[in-house]
Amino acid sequence: MEKRSLALVSGLYLVNAAVGTWLAVRDDLKGRPFGWTTGFSPLPDFLFGLGTALSAPLLLLVVLVALNLVMLIRRPQSRLAATMIAALGVGFLIGMLAEPITWEFLDAGHFAPLLATVLIVNVVLPVAIVILGWRVRNL
């Protein structure tokens, strides 16, 4: 049951990342984790760089999908895959908390409901990924 829950939460994270990527590209929200920037616009940064202000880079999202498939299909590797998924969750959480936009959206003058939803989900789901990944690892 925990494996399915982890896969479901990972899938929800991927959907939220897709919405976040769309918003970031639409509104030119460049990723600036810890103030670092590649100088790319959001789409190339999503495809080849650090990601956008609202989503992890494509490569990490593909890795998340692959690890979930390994966890669900390959029983001997399930523990390792779950551990790596939990580690990705930690990375996703740190990345989102390191983005200035995560804190700027609280400013009443810039509040947007869809943006706020994506940001909140980008913090909550990685926490769930870490917890579930650790539980699957310890099965």
Structure write-up:
The protein is built from 6 helices and no strands. Helix 3 packs antiparallel against helix 4 and helix 4 runs antiparallel to helix 6 (113-137). The longest helix is centred in the N-terminal third of the chain and has 26 residues, at 2-27. The protein has helices spanning 2-27, 42-48, 58-73, 78-97, 100-104, 113-137. The chain has one domain (2-137). It is mostly helical and 139 residues long.
The total of beta strands comes to: 0
Q: What characteristic shape results from the CA principal axes? A: elongated
The helix/strand class is mainly alpha
- Strand percentage lies at under 5%
Summed up, the helix count is: 6
Low-confidence stretches: none
Helix-residue proportion: over 70%
Oligomer: single chain
The radius of gyration is 15 Å
How far apart lie the N and C ends? Answer: 11 Å
The biggest beta sheet reads: none
> What number of structural domains do the residues give?
1
Mean pLDDT: 93
SSE sequence, one letter per element: HHHHHH
Kindly summarize this structure in a few lines.
The chain has 139 residues and is an all-alpha fold. It is 71% helix and 0% strand.
